[in-house]
Structures are given as structure tokens and as C-alpha cells.
Design a protein that fits this description.
The complex is a heterodimer. Chain A is mainly α. Chain A is built from 14 helices and no strands. Classes of the chains: A mainly alpha, B mainly alpha.
């Protein structure tokens, strides 16, 4: 465990150093580029009393240059033309991109941190909800499948019910698999899609997040249920009915509660072991969720949100701010990875009664 | 009767066939109701998306296989420091959300494209696919490493070594090809799904976020960039009108066909790939 934590700490330090170095490098490069541009035109460029828009001033300056640098008429003419052009360009750039150019200063860092905090809150809420959703859907599907296996003969009503459920399932799969921007644009004229609440709900029900990971959890439950100890538990007469109405079955409220426990039922052991196996997948799930959140913020152009800010700064080539944003996202993934590893380790130690 | 049963008996084959049939039906429908320039765009967008995603599979497989063999060779030759460095780098790639990595890859490729360094599709597609594969291949490495580790623990590995078979042959041929190709193939099906999803998302983001007047990018059309097209967005937004007027439903399939076709192609492809992968895993009891 110590090795894993050290590895995480090392990667955080390494990436921080590399990216902070990149920010410093970009700053240095920009300063140098500005200085070399300035050097070219500084001979005449900073003459405050010369109005480069006035033809008389320009002609006068050319005459002065010809006096000071005699025999270099062409050079002087070219230099003055360049200065005039650079003045025009600088003015045009100032007018068109004054809102684009930003630097990573304390105020900007504070603004980014505020956005990051809001991103973290949405992320924490959605990861908690998906964790619950993945487990609930997985358990629901497992119990449903078991009940179907227990039922040998179906009445007409049950057949119709099953068909209806399958149709509903296919429709739900289509919605759950839709990329977030498809759902968002379909609802844009009806709902305010710029809120954090909408973002959280959208992250939960789109991009296939819930369906892919609940399927993974279901696979863990299925493979666990095939193990020998389950057969032994049957022989030892542990409850093993999946009928929600039977006294020895699994009622619906057990499936939907937050902290799932199935006391006295063989499924309790299946569930606990599958949950333990699922913990490392949490890292993958978290990374996928972050991908989903970034897509939502960027695709919906939600102003004042971290990922949209990253895209905006990328567009305006303010790379220092882009790098700072990436660093924040990286920390989030790393924090989740550390959390997942620590949890897995703690549970493993609890099972094995050793501290390896 | 048997061939039909054989085709429809398994979930993966059923979904693969449905995907082909539905795409064909959609094409015929679009041929009838969609105007020619839009139809051309939708068809080329779909083909481009499929080509790039196919290339992603190829690059992911090659990168995954090469890194697996590298890591395995380092481990068996006890080069722990190098092994640690490569594993560390792989973990680092894993810690970067795929969309961020792919977005930066795309930005670099589009910059090269704008500067005229890359001009043809033949150069552009592999580069875009490679940018994506770089952030997906660790998943394939994980799977291959897991398979090798599992087989190394079994007697058959040592038995083959005692028989004088080279370790590289055991790993490459006996473990990865003979005993894991079904697993790898199943992984590649999901890689295809991830590639379609990431590509559509990045293209959509680039087309919407990096607005065309500021940053003119003339990448070949894909489903994602087509969806970001002004007409398609309006088509998708018209779905919301069903809340107030259900009778508007049939018009979605005639008037708003471009956006609806593109969105349907993306979603249906993703759903089909998911079901094909699940069905394949069930059929082969993975």
C-alpha cells in the first residue's frame, strides 16, 4: 500500500513540476518574443512626439533618419514602413483581442479555484449518485434474473409484463447511451441547461455511464454467484429466494436502500464480495465521469465553468491558464485513485486480517 | 432454417445484423427524403467516423501488444527500474481524462493541418486515430497483462519452458493468440465504441467551442462535427417541440432529417456496439 501511495505522490509531484515548468517556460517564451519584437523597432518606435498616422510626421522622420544614417535611404524607408505597420497591427490587435489575452495571476487563479470548487461539488454529487445507481441497478437486474429463472411457467399477463419491461429497457438504453450533448440540445428550448443541477442530472443519465458500470457490477455479481461457497450456503440452509414477497426473499426496500444489507440471505455474501471487486473499477468510473462532465461543460458552452474556461483559453492561446486547469483536473483524478486504493486496501485487510 | 437460427440465435450476431440493416434502411430513407448535399455530408461523415474508429482499433492493438511484451520482457529479465518507469508512465496516461488527451491531440493535428504540414485524408485520419489510441491503449495493456499473469501461474507455462519453447513464443502465440484472442477481440469491440464516442464528442466540442470564425478548421466531416452543424442543432432542438405537440413527431423524420439521422446514427451505433460486446462475452463465457 505504501508503494502505491508513494507512486501516487510521486506522479502528483512530477506532473506538478512538469506543468508548472511549462507555465514558466511559456511565460519566458512570450516575454522573449515581445522583447525581440520590441528590439526591431525600438530605434524609432518609441518616439512619443511622432504621430505615425500623420504623413507629415512620417516624412519628417524619414528625413531625420536619412540625415543620421546617410546613404541608407532604402533601409530607413523600410524600417519606417515596418514601424508604421507594426503600430497599426498592435492597435488592431488591441481593439479586437483585448478581452482574449489573459495571464495567470492571483485574481485569475482565484477565479479558477472558484470554478474548480463548483466542478468538485458536481463531481462529488454525481460520483455518489452513480455509485448508488450502479449498485442498485446491478442488484435489481440480478434479483430479476434470478426470479425469472425461478419461474418455470408464465401466465399470459406475466408474458405481456415481461415484453413491456423489455421494450422499456431498450428505450431506457437508448436514452442512457445518448451522448450528453444530444440530450441537452433536445431539451435546450424547454429547460435551462446552464445550471449545475442540470449538469449533474445529465452526467448521471447520459454517455452510457450508468449502464456500462451497472453492467460491470452485474457481471461481478453473476461470477460471484457461481462460486462454491454459494452452493455451500444453500446446503447450510441460508435464505436464497429472490421473491420480493416471500418471507425469506429480498424485499424491494432492501434493494433501494443506501447502505445495502441482505441479512440472513446468501445474496448478502455475493453482494459484499462483488462490491469489493468493484472498488478498483471506481477509478475507471471516476475518470469516465470526469470525461463526461468535461464534455458537458464544453459542448454546452456553460460560461463560468472550469472545462468551458479551459476550452476558451485554449482558443485564445492562453496556455498557462489551460495548463493550470489541466493540473486541477489531474489532481481530482489522482485524489479519486488514492481514495479507491485506500478503501480497497482497508477492506482487503479486514478480510485477510493481515497488513500487507 | 438453420443459418437463420445461427444468425439470430446469439445476441451479438443479432445486434450486428440489426445494426447493418438499420443503417441500410436509414440510408434508403435519407435517399428518399433528404436533400443531396446533406445526404452526401451524412454519408461521408458516417464513413469517416467508421474509418477513424477502425484505425483506432488497429493502433490500440499494436500499441497494447508492444507495451505488453515490453513490460513482460522487463519483468522476466528483472529490470525493475525500467519496468517501474514504464508502468508509472502508463498510470500517468491513465490519470489524464481521455477527452482532455484526445482534445489536445486533435488541437495539435488541426494546427498541423492549418499550417499545411498535413493536407490529405491519408495523413490526417491515421494521426487523429493515433491521438485517440494513445489514451485508450492502456486498457488493452491491462487485459493482456492480466491474461499473461494468469497463465504464468499455471503449470502449462513452466511445462512449455521445460520443453524448450521460447518464452516470447509462449507469451505471444500460446497465451495471447491461442488463449486470449477472444478476450482481446471483445476488448477491441469496446475500444471501437469508446473511439466512436470520443471522436464524436471531440469533433462536436471543436466545432461548437472553437468557433469557426476565429479558428477555421477544415477537417473532413464526421458524425460529431455534423451534429454541431447549425442545421443539425436546430433539428435536434425540434425534438423538444414534441412536449407541446405530439403530432409533430412524423415531421421529425422528414423535415428535420439531417440532425435526427446523425444523432440516431451515433446513439444506435453506441447501443449496438455495447450489445454486441455483451453478447459476444456471454456467448464465449468470458
Amino acid at each position: 500500500m505504501k508503494r502505491k501511495l508513494l507512486e501516487h505522490a510521486f506522479s502528483v509531484v512530477l506532473i506538478t513540476v512538469v506543468l508548472v515548468g511549462a507555465v514558466a517556460g511559456i511565460g519566458w517564451y512570450e516575454r522573449n518574443a515581445r522583447a525581440s519584437e520590441k528590439e526591431k523597432t525600438e530605434v524609432f518606435g518609441e518616439l512619443a512626439f511622432v504621430n505615425f498616422n500623420d504623413p507629415f510626421d512620417r516624412a519628417l522622420l524619414e528625413d531625420v533618419a536619412n540625415v543620421y544614417y546617410p546613404g541608407q535611404h532604402d533601409r530607413n524607408e523600410t524600417a519606417l514602413a515596418e514601424i508604421a505597420s507594426s503600430h497599426e497591427q498592435a492597435l488592431a490587435k488591441k481593439l479586437t483581442s483585448s478581452h482574449e489575452s489573459e495571464r495567470l495571476n492571483i485574481a485569475k487563479a482565484g477565479e479558477l479555484l472558484g470554478m474548480y470548487l463548483s466542478f468538485l461539488i458536481v463531481y462529488a454529487v454525481v460520483i455518489a449518485l452513480t455509485y448508488y445507481g450502479v449498485h442498485t441497478i446491478g442488484v435489481w437486474r440480478f434479483c430479476l434474473k434470478r426470479r425469472e429463472l425461478e419461474q418455470t411457467q408464465l401466465s399470459f399477463f406475466q408474458k405481456v409484463l415481461r415484453l413491456g419491461r423489455s421494450t422499456l429497457g431498450v428505450a431506457a438504453t437508448f436514452v442512457l447511451f445518448s451522448p450528453a450533448y444530444v440530450i441537452a440540445y433536445a431539451l435546450k428550448t424547454r429547460l435551462n441547461t446552464d445550471t449545475s443541477l442540470f449538469m449533474a442530472v445529465l452526467a448521471l443519465v447520459s454517455n452510457g455511464l450508468l449502464i456500462v458500470y451497472s453492467n460491470k457490477f452485474y457481471a461481478f455479481l453473476t461470477s460471484e454467484s457461481r462460486k462454491g461457497y454459494v452452493e455451500t450456503a444453500y446446503v447450510k440452509n441460508l435464505n436464497h429466494s429472490y421473491d420480493p414477497h416471500a418471507s425469506d426473499g429480498i424485499p424491494y426496500r432492501w434493494i433501494f436502500r443506501m447502505r445495502k444489507r441482505f441479512d440472513g440471505h446468501v445474496f448478502d455474501h455475493i453482494y459484499r464480495n462483488a462490491s469489493f471487486q468493484y472498488l478498483p473499477t471506481l477509478k475507471e468510473q471516476a475518470s469516465f465521469l470526469i470525461t463526461g462532465l468535461i464534455i458537458i461543460e464544453m459542448a454546452l458552452n456553460i460560461h463560468g465553468h472550469l472545462s468551458y474556461e479551459m476550452l476558451r483559453q485554449l482558443l485564445y492561446k492562453n496556455y498557462d491558464i489551460v495548463i493550470a486547469t489541466i493540473l486541477l483536473v489531474f489532481y481530482t483524478v489522482k485524489a479519486t485513485e488514492v481514495f479507491s486504493d485506500v478503501m480497497s486496501h482497508r477492506i482487503a485487510v479486514g478480510y485477510e486480517n493481515t497488513d500487507s | 432454417m438453420k443459418p437463420i437460427q445461427h444468425l439470430f440465435g446469439h445476441k451479438d450476431k443479432r445486434w450486428a445484423l440489426s445494426w447493418v440493416l438499420v443503417v441500410l434502411v436509414l440510408f434508403l430513407w435519407d435517399l428518399h427524403f433528404l436533400n443531396r448535399p446533406s445526404l452526401k455530408l451524412v454519408v461521408s461523415g458516417f464513413i469517416n467516423t467508421m474509418i477513424i474508429s477502425g484505425l483506432v482499433i488497429l493502433f490500440t492493438l499494436v500499441l497494447g501488444w508492444v507495451f505488453t511484451i515490453l513490460l513482460d520482457a522487463m519483468q522476466s529479465r528483472r529490470r525493475e527500474k525500467t519496468h517501474f518507469v514504464v508502468t508509472f508512465l502508463l498510470n500517468l496516461v491513465r490519470s489524464i481524462p481521455q477527452i482532455v488527451g484526445v482534445l489536445f491531440g486533435y488541437v495539435i493535428v488541426t494546427t498541423l493541418h492549418r499550417q499545411g504540414i498535413i493536407s490529405s485524408k491519408m495523413q490526417l485520419f491515421p494521426l487523429l486515430a493515433f491521438a485517440m489510441a494513445l489514451f485508450i491503449f492502456p486498457e488493452v495493456v491491462d487485459l493482456m497483462r492480466e491474461r499473461i499473469d494468469h497463465y504464468r501461474k499455471l503449470d502449462f507455462f513452466n511445462a512449455m519452458r521445460v520443453c524448450g519453447i521460447r518464452e516470447s513464443r509462449i507469451v505471444n502465440f500460446n497465451i495471447l493468440w491461442r488463449n486470449s484472442r477472444i478476450h482481446i477481440f471483445n476488448k477491441l469491440i469496446s475500444v471501437f465504441g469508446i473511439a466512436v464516442f470520443l471522436q464524436c464528442s471531440v469533433d462536436f466540442i471543436i466545432s461548437v467551442g472553437l468557433s469557426t470564425d476565429v479558428n477555421p478548421i477544415s477537417l473532413p466531416p464526421t458524425l460529431g462535427s455534423l451534429l454541431a452543424h447549425y442545421d443539425s442543432k436546430q433539428d435536434i432542438q425540434s425534438i423538444a417541440s414534441l412536449f407541446s405537440d405530439v403530432s409533430y413527431f412524423p415531421q421529425l423524420f422528414t423535415i428535420h432529417l439531417q440532425g435526427v439521422s446523425v444523432a440516431f446514427l451515433i446513439v444506435f451505433t453506441l447501443v449496438s456496439i455495447y450489445n454486441i460486446s455483451n453478447g459476444y462475452a456471454e456467448r464465449n463465457q468470458l
